[in-house]
Input
Amino acid sequence: MSVCEYKPGLEGIPAAQSSISYVDGQKGILEYRGIRIEELAAKSTFLETAYLLIWGELPSKEELEAFEDEVRHHRRIKYRIRDMMKCFPESGHPMDALQASAAALGLFYSRRDLHNPVYIRDAVVRLIATIPTMVAAFQLMRKGNDPVRPRDDLDYAGNFLYMLHEKEPDPLAARIFDVCLILHVEHTMNASTFSARVTASTLTDPYAVVASAVGTLGGPLHGGANEEVIQMLEEIGSVANVRPYVEDLLQRKAKIMGFGHRVYKVKDPRATILQELAEKLFSKYGDDKYYEIAQEMERVVAEKLGHKGIYPNVDFYSGLVYRKMGIPTDLFTPIFAIARVAGWLAHWKEQLEENRIFRPTQIYNGRHEVPYIDIDQR
Output
């Protein structure tokens, strides 16, 4: 490999062949197994979409009911994991708590029977079912409260909101949250998915795969950006401050959180749907002053940077949706993980089908033939 072939961040270099999702960044198209994201957001549910991604086809009514029933009855976590979580520092970030908790599952279920379809299905069900319970449990325990037990009569999204807020959610909020999960479940070979596939290629257990992906998602250049969007809107404070704020960032060549994407050169289709969801929430529960700031920011950035293909991405409006639901800012990325677990598991399963351990090369740019110097001569 010559120096001219080196691409920082492996930009544009295929790392795998996959039939899970497809993105056309020039046209703003996102498909899961060939189905447009707009259609899934309007007609599907998160668990149905998860099934589609992992097993390759939309389930029959009987298959979906069986999958939902399995997930419903695996939501509870072992008391030893719960007791471990109680020892986490209250000031710790929920993503760190989630990574540790997901890894701990492997202590109980890491049999690594990777050629057994029953083991694979059990792992899929267990991870999709328990990750939301872990996120909600840590949120309550860091406030000094006991976690809320899952309710088997509530659907996936409604049960999470119930465990988080200790009250049954409004059906509109539960449906919107479910759609948010659909929007975040998968997005081709992003950083955390690549991390998941690299880990999976070693033939370790799926709990380690998910834990490694959670750690990758936690960075501010990946899933953590939605937290920084809210902090940015709060810092701007008013519509009048938007233009000078953006101009200052551009002058300093600083990143504008929630804008731009390595793939999309138009507005992220997920951002469009999230904006519509935000407006539905505001029409029922009242306006959010930061939404007006966000709208003005989108206009100003389009004026300044639209010619470069920089528009809102999925992180720009998702925080406003979660904020209106009363979800703390530092839970935005763990919620991203709740959804993306299904995507990571789809890639884990696909990786196992024709596995080859990842072993990329490097371009060495260091010295050669350097003599060792004795310590008393340094």
The chain has a mean pLDDT of 94. The first helix runs from residue 37 to 43. The first strand starts at residue 21 and ends at 24.
